[in-house]
Amino acid sequence: MPLQSLRGALRLLLIGFVFTAGIWVQASGTLDELLFYLPDVQFLAIEHLWLTAVSGGLAILVAIPLGIILSRPSMARAAESAMQVLNVGTTIPTLAVLALSMSFLGIGTVPAVFGLFVATLLPITRNTYAGLKGVSAALREAAAGIGMSPLQRLIKVELPNALYVIFAGMRTALTINVGTVPLAFLIGAGGLGELIFTGIDLYDPVMMLAGAIPTALLAIMVDALIATTAFVAVPRGVNPSRA
Amino acid sequence: MIRLDNLTKVFDTPKGAVVAADHINMEVPSGEICILLGPSGCGKTTTLKMINRIIRPTSGKVFINGEDTTGLNTQELRRSIGYVIQQIGLFPNMTIEENIAVVPKLLGWDKARYKARVRELMHMIALEPDAFLKRYPSELSGGQQQRIGVARALAADPPVMLMDEPFGAIDPINRAVIQDEFLKMQQDLRKTIMFVSHDIDEAIKMGDRIAIFRAGKLEQYSSPDDLLADPKDEFIESFLGEDRALKRLNLVKVHDLVSQEVGTVTPDDDLGMALSRMDDFGYHSAIVMVNERHQPVGVIRRSLARTTKGYCRDHFEPLPTVTHLDDDLRKVASLMFAHDMTWLPCVDEGGRLCGHITQRDITHHLGARYRVQQADAITEV
Ligand SMILES: Nc1ncnc2c1ncn2[C@@H]1O[C@H](COP(=O)(O)OP(=O)(O)O)[C@@H](O)[C@H]1O
Ligand SMILES: [Mg+2]
Q: Complex ipTM, two decimals?
């Protein structure tokens, strides 16, 4: 009960804040200035999403099979070293990954997509692996003892039971991906980073906001999209959000 | 029929080789339940799991219905064997219906057939299909989940079932209920079952045969009564417990030793008649009075009949309790002690008197085996 009323109060506060901010933006004429960038924002947002879609999509396509392969019992030894490499990889800042990518692949969209791909790959692989490893031994034994082939076990038992964790990995990875795309501008790809960094360079806060606000909105949108997909796609029996 | 031929498993561990099952030879006849019993770590689970190759035998063979399973495809072999484990292992991502239908689907049954089969099984395990089929395992109690686990194993009607401590994780009250239900089902199904347990009482209750394991070796393999009456060595004796003679009482039902011929009186008989009947039948303490439907309604005491005149209807004492034909002797003995009786009348399903059972009958029955053994021993000498 106290927690609920606290939450209610916070929500009111937030609404009040957004409202006040809105009035300020309107009164100071910032809104008009922001709207000036609308055509740019539209064009760049599509470019932004495209970068996310390509790099994130490729990452999912590679990371899930990779996580599955590493989780197979025959890979147990190799998997441990591989996960260590991945864990170290995760600690490298994305900017550094992009810089490395640029030094090998040059400037433009390709190195940007590659850098984003690497940064997104790691969390998804890790969650796929952990999710599959987390399926209980009893469940795997029941599936085997009943006469399922290894592939049937994977598809009918292991993946459905790991799916929630795998989706959690995709959610984190893709949300971060959207938030990281602006850095790609630094190595010559497009996206909303163009407004943000140009705005910073020109000491033009409105221009910067015209890039930053849509970026934040896109991140929230992608997050909600994946959460909804997970809600629908993960079977009810193993879906904590549908208990 | 399941036959194990020199079945052996040696685990290679960092601490050296562990012989978990050492040249096990045994045969479970068709339609019987064989309990693998023994202390923890003696190799019961290993032996069981070599039958469906969850554990690969180091050497030896498994025959099912006379066929050597060594050459069979592992998946096909497993689909023809029902498998129930202690952790139940229902698939949380599937509904109850999907869980039960797993093996039929693997075997390629069409939808109508497996749906009908699922309903049939739900009735068998006494769970209402419409209330449960669309639920998920996490929405069921432990006992309900294990019933579903059993149904899943039975789904494709395999001739052979393997069960590893299937009721071990269920609370004692529900466990007894589930055991009874399972035995009742088995009366119709007549599966050939290997069943691991570490609970001697469960073994006596469920088993047609009991195999006692110790440190990877099969020590004794016999019927529960033979095992309790004649344990092979001290290890088995101590494993069975000091009260093993009393445990044999569980195995015998009233109808196995009730005396059919029974003297009675009716309310209209006089006490002199009661006394002479007691003499005729050799009853030392009392005689049962029955009504016109032959249901016991009271007892006439000998001491009273000797000293009093009149009709039985005016002088009977109420009957403290009766036994039923399918009660086991443990319950009968317990009733006798509770009511301080040396005998109890026995009634059929209609409540009609059909015999009586005495403390002497019970001790005599338990003693019969020992007397035979002694006689054998003497003739051998
Ligand atoms: N996978 C394994 N690796 C090594 N040793 C094992 C393995 N499984 C069982 N054992 C050993 O084999 C012996 C028998 O185990 P098990 O068959 O599980 O016993 P039980 O079911 O009678 O309790 C034990 O000493 C156990 O430690
Ligand atoms: Mg065991």
A: 0.85
